[in-house]
Amino acid sequence: MSSAGNVNLHITPSNVLSSGKISFKSGNPVIQFIIGEQDRLLLGNSIRLVGKINFWTNDNGTDIPVKTDSLAWDSRIGMYNCIDQLVIKSQSTHQVIEHIKNYNRMMASYIPTTTSLEDGLSHLSQSALITPAYETAKKSIIDKQGAKLSPNSFALHLPCGLFNGTQGIPLSGNGGVGGLLLEIHLAPDNNVLFDRKGNAQTSNLDRSFYELSDVYLTCEAVEDVRPPGQTSTFEYNSISSYFTSINSTNAIINFNLGLSRVLGIFMNFIPSHMINDFNFNGMATMPIQNLDDKKADIKQIVFTRGGQKYPFMYNLDLEQKDEPDQEMIDPQFTRGGIDAIKGFMKTKRMINAPTNTRLKNRNAEKFVSVGNNWTGADPGSAPQSTNNANQDGGDCFTLGVGFDHISNQGISFATESFGTSINLGLTSNLPHGVYMFCHAKNTLVFGPGGVQVLN
Fold first, then answer.
1. How confident is the model at residue 1 (pLDDT cuts 50, 70, 90)?
2. What letter would DSSP give residue 388?
3. Is the peptide bond between 311 and the residue preceding it cis, with omega within 30 degrees of 0?
4. In Å, what is the CA distance from 216 to each residue of 7, 36, 111?
5. What distance in Å separates the CA atoms of residue 271 and residue 277, rounded to the nearest whole number?
6. 3-class secondary structure, 336
7. Cα 436–439–445 angle (5° rounding)?
8. Dihedral pair phi/psi, residue 345, rounded to 5°
9. DSSP label of 63
10. β-bridge mates for residue 7, sequence order
11. What is the pLDDT at residue 375?
């Protein structure tokens, strides 16, 4: 216990087997933590998921990766590859406070927009196992067991709306959330690990899996000096997630958000066949493309609210509409993604740069149609369709729009749908998955009657 009534909490999972080992492959993909009800305020930004990770290349968990194989993961997001969903509930009522699906895909856009290369080379490489290049990750993380016969340790912050706030979260059952129930759903092995050469079946790397051990949660709480039983409110940001697919020259994305204070919306893309496949990096945030690596340039974007253009009263025409040979992503496209996540003027550091916002000469794999499947034309040349061989960690291709960076109160989509119309050059049969995330404000109302979430 520290001074001023602060306490440091050390919380072990409530559902882990006696071996202490956790993996998706073993059928134990959910880690659950209970932060008990108490008269204290939880400091969300102090929460850390701590543990160790091992990588295995056979079903029994006895063979470790070696330098001659090509096992890899997305080096830009490190340990965040492993988290598929983050669920935060009230312990007493099980009311869902925040639920982020496809959490790792969200982090694939969030990390490049909020951290720098220097962060990846320093503290993030130790806490989150993030590195700015796949070869660094291969030698220092994936293959580390072969050199030292020891797993990698991590102490991972869990960015989300609730935990990124500056206010303490009241844990009391009388005028608070009544404790927190935190669930971490692990991602499938074939969407975390992949064969850089795209030959997972031939090299037997399609049996690889990751395994966590010695997992626990640490956090800090301070004394709650509020009068007991007082009904109060707690404002926090939240992330809502959505998924759809596109496969045409005029892609239409439309969702009924049901949220009244939306601050921004961003989305990233990946060819659908790359999801959950050991031959591909399922976390790649790459530009939309056709078969044979031909560009599928985005030429025009229209954002709508209830069918009307909003927040821009005009079409966003990108450079590629009139200059198809332009290799760089249009700056207003890049700015939109940054604006939706953090706000362009508020961003102090990021990985987004001219070297990883290219549409051509990306050193990525080509797709060749073989029957109903796609294979790499030259699978040994670069990481399969991830272009993490490129400088600065690879593609940072995020489409987004910010709605309110002045009042910070957001725009209502409670009764109006959000829509995006994308005119692009996707002329071949290559469906793309679209992961969309909505950044909005919510309000928690708690009192003697329980907890209520107003969104």
1. very low
2. T
3. yes
4. 16, 15, 23
5. 11
6. helix
7. 130
8. -75, -15
9. P
10. 221
11. 45
Question: Distance (Å, rounded) from C-alpha 321 to C-alpha 33?
Answer: 50
**Under a CB-based contact definition with an 8 Å cutoff, are residues 70 and 161 in contact?**
no
Residue 299 has pLDDT above 80, yes or no: yes
Element holding 337 (H helix, E strand):
helix 331-341
Give mean pLDDT, residues 197-208.
91
Distance CA 57, CA 278 (A): 12
C-alpha 133/C-alpha 121 separation (Å) is: 10
Written as one string, the DSSP assignment of 156-218 is: E----TTTTSSS-EE--SSSS--SEEEEEEEPPGGGTEEETTS-HHHHTGGG-EEEEEEEEEE
CA 392 from chain center: how many Å? 18
Which helix (H) or strand (E) segment is 49 a member of? strand 40-56
DSSP string, 338-382: HHHHT-GGG-------GGGSBSSS--PPPEEEETTEEEESSTTSS
pLDDT exceeds 70 at position 127 = yes
Q: What is the pLDDT of residue 50?
A: 97
Q: What is the pLDDT of residue 381?
A: 38
Q: What is the mean pLDDT of residues 198-225?
A: 93
What are φ and ψ of residue 434, in 5° steps?
-120, 115
384 against 50, higher pLDDT:
50
CA distance linking residue 131 with residue 292, whole number of Å: 29
The encoded tokens of residue 278 equal 């050991």
Mean pLDDT of 32-54: 94
Residue 295 gets which letter from DSSP?
B
Band of residue 3 on the pLDDT scale cut at 50, 70, 90: very low
**pLDDT of 210 above 90:** yes
